[in-house]
Amino acid sequence: MLKRKIYQTLLEWKNTKKDECLLVKGARQVGKSYIIREFGYDNYESVIEINFYQHPEYKVIFDGDLTPTEIYKRISLQLTNVSFVEGKTLLFLDEIQHCPNARTAIKFLAMDKRCDVISSGSLLGLHYKEIVSIPVGYEKQIDMYSLDFEEFLWAYGYNDDTIENLKSYFVSKEKIPHPVHDKFNHLLKEYLVVGGMPDVVNTFFETNNFLTVYQKQLDILNQYEEDIKKYAKGSERQKIKDCYYSIPRQLAKEYTKFQYTTVAPRGNLRKYENSLDWLVDAGMIKLVYNVSTPQLPLKAYEKTNDFKIYTTDIGLTTALYGFETQTALISDVLKGPAKGGIYENLIFDILTKKGYTLHYVKKDNNSQEIEFLIEQNCAIIPIEVKSKKGETTSLNKFLKEWNPPYAYELTSTNIGQADIKITMPHYLTTFI
Fold first, then answer.
1. Using one digit for the tens of pLDDT, what is the confidence trace for 291-317?
2. Domain residues for 185?
3. Which of 137, 264, 298, 306 could form a disulfide with 290 if both were Cys (CB 3.0 to 4.6 A apart)?
4. Which of 105, 128, 143 is the last residue of a domain?
């Protein structure tokens, strides 16, 4: 059983909510159903689970009158062995995007308070037009991702004390002992290849076989393709696939800005904009925007037609390159721009799962680029990403021009600090 941070989030919601149901969003296969089910059986006397994808016939429960009493009556007629304990029951509405009326009913169930309600969905952004009324004010939404690097370490057997000891080097900026540094550099390379999809992580620890892991990742990518075939319309299907499978080429450029012509020779915004929106709504990618000015608030300075795209699971990113590339990453023999792009996606993976909204800055008239900017402590903090130790010309220029309180250079080398520039190994990113 994989330990997930979101379990604590669910527990906090249960203990502090008022008139509020919970919606857990995320891409397919990130473990939403499993963790909600586990949380339910741990914390309630009764769990009623309705999966609208597996049982489309249950959608009739939410036809017509949406008063809670009528809904509970219909549940008892449709589901066998249902036990309803007032105040101690969790109603779990899984794959709620397949039943828009259930999403509309959330408001009334939240106000009723006879049971707690958690819903989950993987493709909610694709179905929003079908919902009669969004339950604004009665639905708390949280995003769920695949395992982050710290959760991967838990799966490996590292406990909280060990992770806190590692964090102490991030806080003190003291050199990490070489055996420890080498060990965690290797663990990060494994995470780079395995990623955080629960089925993939379980396969890794059950088999210790990277080829089997890669085959499991291909299974997930094939499931994503099936979703595209099922939910996208007409010619849009191929364009969505073309955008997604262009990611290895996008990340292999010296400057990893998304380019429509990298998807196809005559690609343009008009042709592929809806395809990118579809992938974002499905939780398969996120966009990171360039900013005209690296100042608070970064949202105000976004250049909306100037962005990079990254997958939401680093293991799937490396799987898109193929097994030989994954092997080269583990062996640390991969060279060239593609390696830099892969490590960008790795840092994106770690920081996004920590809750950061990322931006970057790249001016049209020069080569200066800072891979990521974050808002922290009422300031803009630059983060430069290197797959190996290298020159930090862009970061040095940024420090002179914008004078941030501190900055990060992420490399494979040990930790160090020169004035406000903190150099540290990639694996310590989890503590930023």
1. 999 999 999 999 999 999 999 999 999
2. 149-431
3. 306
4. 143
